[in-house]
């Protein structure tokens, strides 16, 4: 498969896959921010009754929570190990999610316009061609449907906070989790969305307080940020 993927990135997350659902592991930040991102999506596009695809679903933290909110969820990823963990966790949770090993571009060719909502969170900074992933997400959603992204801004502050702070000082993430050159400025992401036929509706920042150890959504998009878009009707 000629996928838009970096083998080194896939290997990195595959090696950690067995720890995906351990809330004290390297994936603790994902567990901590998941209620925030889930509520943010559900507030603007109520999930109940919607057909949703989670692009780059990994071990299924977001996918499961959207299913619990009443959505019919498909999760796609290129890490077979992560998907194996995601499927095993369904036995524990009792939820229903359709997990498939597939690249976004390839899946979009077969399922164009079939989803009400597309989510692609914490993934764009890990692929060689983010614009290709964004275009695939735009193709997957129906006209008038919603697409959600999240990623990391590229500036000196984000390097200090997301790499030096999170990986080396606070050790919230394993060293080497992120590569600064792959961070994406909001202007770049917005341009790629417009090129793919997506209207940018909202840009929201996510910050972390190292003293209270609490994540919060707000106006500060200097480091982590989320984008809500809608496909042209």
UniProtKB/TrEMBL annotation:
Belongs to the methyltransferase superfamily. UbiG/COQ3 family. S-adenosyl-L-methionine binds at residues 37, 56, 77, 121. The lineage of its organism: Bacteria, Pseudomonadati, Pseudomonadota, Betaproteobacteria, Rhodocyclales. This is Ubiquinone biosynthesis O-methyltransferase. Pfam families: Methyltransf_23. GO terms for molecular function: 2-polyprenyl-6-hydroxyphenol methylase activity; 3-demethylubiquinol 3-O-methyltransferase activity; polyprenyldihydroxybenzoate methyltransferase activity. HAMAP family: UbiG. GO terms for biological process: methylation. Pathway: Cofactor biosynthesis; ubiquinone biosynthesis.
């Amino acid at each position: 498969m000629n996928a838009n993927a970096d083998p080194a990135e896939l290997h990195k997350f595959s090696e950690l896959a067995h720890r995906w659902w351990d809330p004290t592991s390297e994936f603790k930040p994902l567990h901590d921010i998941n209620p925030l991102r889930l509520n943010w999506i559900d507030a603007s596009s109520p999930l109940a009754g919607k057909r949703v695809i989670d692009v780059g679903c990994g071990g299924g933290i977001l996918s499961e929570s959207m299913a619990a909110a009443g959505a019919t969820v498909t999760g796609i990823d290129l890490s077979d190990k992560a998907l194996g963990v995601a499927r095993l966790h369904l036995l524990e949770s009792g939820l229903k999610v359709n997990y498939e090993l597939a690249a976004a571009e390839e899946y979009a060719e077969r399922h164009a316009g079939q989803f009400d909502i597309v989510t692609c969170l914490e993934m764009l900074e890990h692929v060689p061609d983010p614009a290709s992933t964004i275009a695939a997400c735009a193709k997957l959603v129906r006209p008038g449907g919603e697409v959600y992204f999240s990623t990391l801004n590229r500036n000196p502050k984000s390097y200090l906070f997301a790499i030096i702070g999170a990986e080396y000082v606070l050790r919230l993430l394993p060293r080497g989790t992120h590569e600064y050159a792959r961070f994406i400025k909001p202007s770049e992401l917005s341009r790629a969305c417009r090129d793919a036929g997506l209207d940018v509706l909202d840009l929201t920042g996510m910050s972390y307080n190292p003293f209270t150890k609490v994540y919060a959504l707000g106006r500060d998009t200097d480091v982590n940020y989320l984008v809500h878009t809608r496909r042209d009707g």
